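A.,

Following up on our hallway conversation. Structure tokens first:
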């Protein structure tokens, strides 16, 4: 019996109510579940698709305080985010690392203006600072950013921020939850709330794989479903005001030749009021992001024509030429759950989080950003414990090392392998057991077949998409290569999960249809 089947058998039994039941397996939900389990609460998380399937795997891959929030004078958010950035590096150094950023200055006024601002940004991080900022000469800026537009360049401001792999961080949170005795299961949807005497005491659940329906009871139910929180609130049956303004952000993934070197580019002000980044990541270059209000919340958002035009124009403006279609390795988009405030533009809305407790006791958390996920979880469980009478227990996550943390030197040969941390020897051992698993998934990708097996056995990967989009990052790094690698992944995954040939063909077809959306089209 598989690990997932064992979990479902336990869930479908007559187990006592959970202390905390979290709906949603993105950054916020996983962080909240880890927070609850670390306090000793009996914790369950359910996710209707895969962990980090949507927004939480489609970020700009930054762990940062948010320079633009400092421009907006939201000092509290910046302070909180800078502190959390430091904690993420301390508690998950295998997944988070320091990265040099440069703001190119095309006017002499820009040098002191941004230089002073980034010195403030540095000072706000205090003892958790990633490093000192400094003003660079024109020559030094060009040496750090070969490929950036040189015409009119006066110099640059170098500063430090954090980078991470968002989906791999989410999987580390999943494994940490399990290490703490918590339980999580993907492809289980909350289809309704269970109420008794006007209070929410659990959810009606549906297993997307088997079609089975069952009930799950809990003392505290937390709605952490990102851009979908209002769907869960609607299940409560009470009238409520519109809570979110949903914004879409899109990215191009390009060859590193567009901006060689290991330094990231940051443009502090673009036409849509956001900052723009060009960031080296796993051998490629991520350029983004945009900010476009959208009316609906799709699980597979697609870049709009105006977003593609915006990115092409800005790449041409700052890197010499617009990318040709064949040079765009992948296009991905994510949705931001921004807490609505009047009629403000989405680019002006704060990334502060909001926690609501309904009269029925349903706890909803939304807003926020990846960097503040831990603080969001802490605040949510504080409120949930207070609202439902759970035994008081202090937060322990500020010093909690995430799964994979190690003080030992690993044998990683790439930034990708280093993300497995203390699990890397186990991953590598799979090649010793079966030499065929040492083969690359694709010549243009850094991933090996053994990572497919590891994902199925230890990381709850259930589909080809789970493996190629989130357990590895193949779909984001090179969509064409991911499509070409998919049949081999389907074969291996079907063998590991004991799936039929019919399942393999259907799942492969689903992935190929999804992957087409990551290919650039005019």
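Then the amino acids I'd put at each of the 522 positions:
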């Amino acid at each position: 019996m598989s690990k997932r089947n064992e979990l479902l058998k336990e869930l479908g039994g007559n187990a006592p109510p959970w202390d905390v039941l979290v709906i949603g397996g993105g950054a916020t939900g996983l962080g909240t579940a880890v927070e609850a389990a670390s306090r000793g609460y009996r914790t369950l998380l359910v996710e209707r698709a895969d962990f980090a399937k949507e927004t939480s795997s489609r970020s700009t891959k930054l762990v940062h305080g948010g320079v633009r929030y400092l421009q907006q004078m939201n000092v509290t958010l910046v302070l909180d985010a800078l502190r959390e950035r430091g904690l993420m590096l301390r508690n998950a150094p295998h997944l988070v690392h320091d990265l040099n950023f440069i703001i190119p200055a095309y006017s002499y006024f820009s040098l002191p203006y941004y230089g002073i601002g980034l010195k403030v940004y540095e000072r706000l991080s205090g003892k958790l600072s990633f490093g000192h900022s400094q003003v660079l000469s024109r020559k030094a800026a060009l040496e750090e950013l070969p490929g950036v537009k040189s015409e009119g360049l006066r110099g640059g401001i170098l500063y430090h921020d954090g980078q991470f792999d968002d989906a791999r961080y989410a999987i580390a949170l999943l494994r940490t939850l399990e290490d703490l005795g918590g339980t999580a299961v993907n492809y289980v949807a909350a289809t309704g709330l269970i109420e008794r005497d006007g209070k929410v005491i659990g959810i009606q659940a549906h297993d997307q794989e088997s079609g089975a329906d069952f009930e799950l009871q809990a003392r505290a139910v937390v709605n952490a479903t990102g851009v979908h929180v209002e769907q869960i609130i609607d299940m409560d049956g009470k009238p409520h005001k519109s809570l979110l303004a949903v914004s879409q952000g899109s990215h191009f993934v390009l060859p590193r030749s567009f901006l060689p070197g290991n330094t990231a580019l940051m443009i502090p002000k673009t036409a849509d009021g956001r900052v723009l980044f060009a960031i080296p990541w796993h051998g490629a270059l991520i350029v983004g992001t945009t900010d476009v209000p959208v009316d609906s919340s799709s699980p597979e958002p697609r870049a709009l024509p105006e977003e593609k035009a915006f990115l092409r124009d800005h790449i041409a403006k700052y890197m010499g030429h617009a990318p040709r279609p064949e040079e765009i390795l992948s296009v991905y988009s994510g949705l931001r759950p921004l807490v609505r405030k009047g009629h403000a533009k989405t680019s002006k809305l704060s990334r502060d989080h909001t926690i609501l407790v309904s009269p029925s006791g349903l706890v909803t958390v939304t807003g926020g950003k990846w960097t503040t996920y831990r603080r969001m979880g802490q605040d949510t469980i504080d409120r949930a414990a207070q609202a439902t009478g759970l035994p008081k227990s202090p937060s322990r996550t500020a010093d909690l090392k995430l799964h994979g943390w190690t003080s030992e030197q690993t044998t990683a040969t790439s930034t990708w392998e280093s993300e497995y941390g203390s699990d890397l020897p186990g991953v590598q051992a799979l090649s010793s057991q079966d030499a065929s698993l040492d083969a690359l998934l694709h010549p243009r990708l850094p991933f090996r077949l053994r990572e497919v097996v590891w994902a199925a056995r230890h990381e709850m990967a259930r589909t080809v998409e789970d493996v190629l989009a989130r357990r590895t990052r193949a779909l984001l790094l090179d969509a064409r290569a991911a499509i070409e690698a998919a049949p081999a992944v389907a074969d291996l995954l079907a063998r590991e999960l004991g799936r039929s040939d019919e399942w393999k063909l259907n799942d492969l077809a689903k992935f190929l249809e999804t992957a087409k959306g990551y290919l650039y089209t005019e």
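Residues 98-162+244-343 form a domain with the D-Amino Acid Oxidase; Chain A, domain 2 fold (CATH 3.30.9.10). Curious whether your intuition agrees with the design.

B.
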